[in-house]
Structures are given as structure tokens and as C-alpha cells.
Specification:
The protein is about 40% helix and about 25% strand. It has about 300 residues and is of the alpha/beta class. Helix 1 packs across helix 3 and helix 6 packs across helix 10.
Length: about 300
């Protein structure tokens, strides 16, 4: 196994992931198919594991390790694409960048929008790069310095990361405004008999929800599960059932015909800012945290 990964190998791998085939990647890169295949083979030799399962005549199927590697390196390639612009702005001392990764509910929430509006009005030389990421991916992006700041559900157990709690809110239930339960202000597991449930499938949010649901003897009908809590709200808004989720996801549906209900027993969720120890003293990170607190 070699210890040197070359940029052209990563570009070839990225193109295959996006296009779904070597031929598609070759078209994207203006290369021959054999050249793309050689770059992929060299990368796999360097890494010491297979990135794709080869199937004759079919699309390239990434392996599990291949998917993990792509998730880890795609942000790096995106930053490389931005380097000429960033270098020019540094040379001109015209702009500073703040890179934030947040879970989709937070990145689409009214809370963050209000905080960024305040931040932007008083920091006109700063440009924002917002990356919607799943909760477990955000820690990786923070540790690998692909972002300056993460906003996510706590706790965080990675010793390389520090966390500052910002807000604690309870989980909620979401239904279409014409749903029979929409007339209530509060619902509980006992109210879910005969109802179709829409639940987030990703951890750690699901770890908070399941114990609350187990408090009833009723057999629950989980109709839809989705990695995105926003998707859960979307289908609740379409009348598919009752979604149980974080309190931020429903705020992305301005004007939608949904009703957000309190959920009992309380499912307490604490969200915070996470960053590396070296970014703890960053003035720009401190500023955005203060604006988020001001927006609460």
C-alpha cells in the first residue's frame, strides 16, 4: 500500500460517484475510460480497500467503505475548488469565511436564519458557507477542519471536540391541520392508537423518541421512517400521519397547513455549537454563537 493519494485519483473517484459509471466519469472529466479506471485502481491500491463492487454491464455500486470514504473527502475537494477565490480574497484582505455544518432541521430553522441575519448585518466582510449534514457526520467535519463550527444535537463524546450548549427544547408532534388530533394542544403515546406514525430513523434523535413511545401498551403503526426529520414533517403536512420530531424541523414549513403539538412525556433535546479546541478562541466563532443566543 502506498502512502500518497493524488488529486487526479480523487477527481476520478468523485466523478464516478456522481456519474454512476466509468463512462459517465470519463465524459465529465474529458478523459478516456481506461484512464479513469487506472486512476480508480491506483486510488484503491493506495487506500488498501475496494471503493466499488464491479458488476459487468451494470452501474458502479460503491462499497460501504467507499461511501464512508466519499463522505469524508467530498468536503475536502469542495474546499480545493474554492481555493483560488479564497486566496484572492485573502490577498486583497477583502473577505473572511465562516464555514458552518448543521443538521438540516437547524440549518433550515428560523432560529439560525435570524442569527445569520444579525451576523451578516454587522459583519459585511464575512461570507458564509453552510453545509447541511447528518448529525453523526458533523463531528467528522469539525475534527477534519472542513468546517469551523458545527450546530447539532448534544452530547458529543469525541475528545477532540468541545461543545457549548445553546438551547434546550422538547420534541414535538406534527400533523396536518385537518387531522383529528390537530384540535389538541398536547398529545401523548396513548393518543396514537390507530394512528400512522412518521419517525426519524437517524440517531441520536431516534434514541430519545423510542423510550417515550414504549410507555404505552398500544401497538404502534410506524408507517414512514426517514433519515430526515424535515421529510417526516413534509409527509405529516401531506396527511400521511403523525410525525414526532425535533422542534426546529416544522419551522421550515412557512405557510404549510400543519399543526405543531406539544408532546408528553417531555423529550428534552439540547442543541449546541461544537468546534475544535483551536477554534474555541476564534473571534468569528464567538460572534456567531453570541448571535444565535441573541436570537433565542
Amino acid at each position: 500500500m502506498s502512502d500518497q493519494i493524488r488529486l487526479r485519483q480523487l477527481r476520478a473517484y468523485q466523478a464516478i460517484m456522481v456519474a454512476g459509471s466509468v463512462s459517465g466519469a470519463a465524459d465529465r472529466l474529458n478523459m478516456t475510460q481506461p484512464a479513469v479506471s487506472r486512476q480508480l485502481a491506483a486510488l484503491e491500491d493506495t487506500l488498501g480497500f475496494r471503493l466499488f463492487n464491479r458488476r459487468s454491464g451494470g452501474p458502479m455500486q460503491p462499497t460501504r467503505t467507499g461511501i464512508q470514504f466519499f463522505k469524508a473527502m467530498e468536503g475536502t475537494l469542495a474546499r480545493l475548488d474554492d481555493l483560488p477565490m479564497i486566496a484572492r480574497e485573502i490577498a486583497e484582505r477583502s473577505r473572511e469565511w465562516l464555514r458552518i455544518a448543521a443538521t438540516p432541521p437547524l440549518i433550515n430553522s428560523r432560529l439560525l436564519a435570524d442569527a445569520l441575519r444579525l451576523f451578516g448585518s454587522e459583519n459585511e466582510n464575512v461570507r458564509l458557507m453552510l453545509e447541511p449534514r447528518h448529525r453523526l457526520d458533523i463531528e467528522e467535519w469539525v475534527v477534519s477542519r472542513q468546517v469551523d463550527l458545527g450546530l447539532a444535537l448534544l452530547p458529543v463524546e469525541n475528545p477532540m471536540i468541545e461543545a457549548v450548549p445553546l438551547i434546550t427544547r422538547n420534541a414535538v408532534a406534527v400533523v396536518h391541520e385537518d387531522h383529528p388530533l390537530a384540535a389538541r394542544e398536547v398529545i401523548s403515546p396513548a393518543d396514537l392508537r390507530g394512528e400512522r406514525l412518521i419517525l426519524p430513523s437517524r440517531q441520536p434523535l431516534r434514541n430519545f423518541i423510542d423510550p417515550a413511545l414504549s410507555s404505552t401498551d398500544a401497538k404502534l403503526d410506524i408507517f414512514i421512517e426517514s433519515a430526515s426529520a424535515i421529510t417526516c414533517c413534509r409527509y405529516a403536512a401531506e396527511g400521511f400521519g403523525v410525525a414526532i420530531c425535533d422542534p426546529f424541523s416544522p419551522t421550515a414549513f412557512i405557510g404549510a397547513r400543519i399543526k405543531t403539538l406539544d408532546w408528553k412525556p417531555d423529550i428534552s433535546l439540547t442543541y449546541g455549537a461544537i468546534f475544535t479546541k483551536e477554534n474555541k478562541e476564534s473571534d468569528i466563532v464567538k460572534k456567531i454563537i453570541s448571535y444565535i443566543r441573541e436570537s433565542l
